[in-house]
Amino acid sequence: MSDLVIGEGVALDLRLAKLPSRALARLLDLLVQGGLLGVLAAVLGVVESVGALDDAVLAGLLIVMTIAVVVGYPTLLETVTRGRTLGKMALGLRVVRTDGGPVRFRHALVRALSGIFDLYATFGVLAVVTSFSSKQGRRTGDWLAGTVVLRDRAPDAGVSPMGMAALSMPYPLLGWAQQLDLSALPDDVALSARQFLTRMHEMRPDVAARLGHELASEVIRYVALPPAGTPPWAYLAAITAERRVRQMRAAETTQREAWERAQARYPAYAGSPAPTALQDPAKGSQLPTMPPVQDRVPDRVPDRVPESASEPVAEAEEDGFKPPV
Asked: Of 101-115, 149-163, 177-191, where does the model show the most confidence?
C-alpha cells in the first residue's frame, strides 16, 4: 500500500504498482512505439523512392520522428490522460505525483527524457535497480520527476456487515487504546490487521485463531501489550479502530486550519462555511469529511475483553489499567 498523503492531510488508500506489471505495461508501449516508427519509416521510404528529398533531410526527419515517438508519445499521453499511456491503461496503472496529485507536462517530460537513459541506454537495468532500491518501486525518472506509479484499478474492497462490525472498537479496550503510541506501527502491518478483521468470519475457526495470533504477535513489536486476557482479535480491532479515529481527527484538524488560513488571507471568504468534502486530486472524487470526534474516555475501563456475551466484564482498578503480563 502507498503512504501518500494529499494536501488536506488524508492518507490515500492506494496500491503501489509492482515491477512485473510496470514492465508489462512498458512492453506494450514499446510495441505501440515500434509500430508507429515502422509506419513513419515506411512513409519516409516512399518519399525517398520518389526522390522528393535528399538524404540529409531524410536523415534529419528520421531523427525527429524517432525523438517524437520515444519522448513525445509518453509525454503527450501522460499529460492528456493524467498519468496513463496505452500500456498503463491496459494494466490499470497511473502515474501520480508523490503528494497524490495528477502529473503535469513537466513531470511527464522529465520521466520520458530520463527513460532514454534508465530504459533504453541501459536496456532497463538501471530502472530495475532503482525500482528495487525504493520502497515505492520508483525508477530514476520517478525520482527526478517526483512521481510514483499506482494501481488505478484495484480489486473490490467491499466489506461485509460482519467485517465492519469486526472493525469497531471493543468498548472494554476503549480507554486503553486512547493512550497508545501508534506512530511506530507500519502501514503494511496495520493493513494486514484490518484485512484479517474484515475476513476472519469467512475463515475456519482454527485458521482464524492462528492468523490472529500471528498478526497480534507482529503488532506487539510496535505497540504496547494488551491488558491480560485480551483475545488477539480484540487487540487488533482496538488498534485498528483507534488508528482510524486518529487519522480522521488529523484530517479534520488539518482541513479546519487550512480553511482558517484561507479566510485570513482572502477576506472575501471570511465568515463563509468550511467545505463539506475533501478533494482527492489523484482521481477527482469527493471524500466526505468526518464529523468532529468527541472525547471518549470512560470513567472506568475493564481489564479484559469477555470471551462471550454471557460472561461478566471485570472492572479494572481505580487507575483504569492493569499491568500487562
From this structure: 101-115
Q: DSSP assignment, residue 299?
A: S
According to DSSP, the residues that pair with 51 across neighbouring strands are: none
Q: In what order do the strands lie in the sheet with 93-97?
A: 15-16, 147-151, 93-97
151's enclosing H/E stretch is strand 147-151
C-alpha cell read off for 197: 478483521
Rounded to 10 degrees, what is the CA torsion of 165, 168, 174, 180?
Answer: 140
pTM of the predicted protein model: 0.48
Cα–Cα distance, 105 to 111 (Å, whole number): 10
Query: Does residue 321 have a pLDDT over 80?
Result: no
- pLDDT single digits (tens) 25-79: 999 999 999 999 999 888 888 877 776 677 788 888 889 999 999 999 999 999 9
H-helix segments, the chain = 19-50, 55-67, 73-80, 86-91, 105-115, 125-132, 140-145, 161-166, 174-178, 187-199, 205-220, 232-265
CA distance 276 to 291: 10
Q: How many CB atoms lie within 10 A of CB 234?
A: 23
Cross-strand partners of 96: 102, 148
